[in-house]
Write the C-alpha cells for this entry.
Amino acid sequence: MKNILVTGASRGIGKAIKEELIQNGYHCIAPTRSELDITDVKSIKKFFDTYELNIDGLVNNAGINIIGNIESISDTDISDMLNTNLVAPLLLTQYVVKQMKQNNAGKIVNISSIWGVRSKEFRTLYSTTKFGINGMTKSLARELGPYNILVNTIAPGYVNTEMTQTNVTAEEQEKIKKTIPLKRFAQPEEIAKLVLFLLSDNNSYITGQTITADGGFLA
C-alpha cells in the first residue's frame, strides 16, 4: 500500500483527494494542524523527524486566498500567503524527496489555480504564489526526473468549495458559469480523480506539467 501525504485535507478539494485515495487503496496521511503546521518550520521538521512511514507521494494542496487591491495588502497578508501557498510546499518537498531518491520513485502533485496561469485584478498576491508553484514544478521535474520522481501541477478553475462560496457571491457565480463552456463549476471529486491519476502507476511519463482543469474557462 502506497503512502500519500496530503495537506489541507479537512475540506474542499483536499478532503475529496483524501477520500478518493482511500477508496482506491492508498494510505492517506492527512495530518491536522496540531500535528503539522505547514507555516511553522519547526513543526514541519518535528513531523518528519517523528513520522516513520515511507512517503511515496505528496499532494501540496493547502492554500489560502486573500483578495484585495495592492494598496490594501498588509505585511501579514504577504507573510501568510507566501508561507502557506509557496514556502510550505517547497519545504515539504525537500523532506519527502530525500526518501523518494532512495527509492528511485515518487510522485508530487501541486495544487495551483487558473490564477497561476492567467490573472485578474485583486489577485496580485494569490497569483504571485500560484505562478511560483508552477515554476517550482517545472524546475523540480527536471531536477528530479533522473530519480524517477514525477512532479506536476493541477490548476483548477472555479470549484464548488467553501473557499469559492466565501470569495464569490451567489450572483457573481451565476455570471461566471455563463462564461464557462461547460456552464458549471467543477466538483471537488473531479479534481481529486485527476490527482489520483497523476499519483497512480498509470502515470509513468507525465512530469513538469501544469494541467488546467477549468471546464474550458481559459480557452
The chain has one domain: 3-213. Residues 3-213 form a domain with the Rossmann fold fold (CATH 3.40.50.720). DSSP finds seven helices and six strands in the chain. The CA atoms of residues 138 and 180 lie 28 Å apart.
